[in-house]
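Notes continue from the previous slide.

Worked example: a multi-chain complex. Inputs as given:
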Amino acid sequence: MRDDNCIFCKIINGDIPSRTIYEDDDFKVIMDADPATKGHSLILPKEHYANLFEMPEDLAAKVLPLAKRLGADMCDKLKCEGMNVVQNNGEVAGQTVHHFHMHLIPRYTDGCKTDVTWSHAGLSDEQLDDICNLLK
Ligand code: AMP
Ligand code: ZN
C-alpha cells in the first residue's frame, strides 16, 4: 500500500533519493534531510500508514526493537551520549509528513545541541484526578 502523494512513499519507491542506513522487508531507515543533530534518522515502514494508530500491531511491535538496535549502533559509531526517540502523530502534535516515522535523534554533551522539550500544562490535582478517572 503506497500513497502517490506521500514523500516517504516516493523515497521507499526509489523515486526520490535518500541516505539509507538500514533496510529490511518491513522498514527503510534514512537520514533526516534537515537533521536536528548529527545522525538524526527516521525509521519508515515500507507500507504507508499515516500514523501509529493506523499501523497494524505486529508491525508497530517491530519498531521499538529496531530503534533500540540502530540507536545503540549509532551511539557507538557517532559517540553520542544519549538519544531522543520521538514519534509525532497528527499536525497538532508536530507531524509534518503523514507517513508513520520514528525519529532517532542522537544527543551530544557538546556541539549539535537541539530542543526536544515541552512546557508544563500546570494542571491542578483535581484536574489530574479527573483525567486519571477518565483514562482508567
Ligand atoms: P515530523 O515533523 O515528525 O513529521 O518529521 C518529518 C521529518 O521528515 C522532518 O524532520 C524533516 O526534516 C524530514 N524530511 C522531510 N522530507 C524529507 C526527505 N525528503 N528526506 C529525509 N527527511 C525528510
Ligand atoms: Zn507514505
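Summary box: The mean pLDDT is 95. The CA atoms of residues 91 and 134 lie 24 Å apart.
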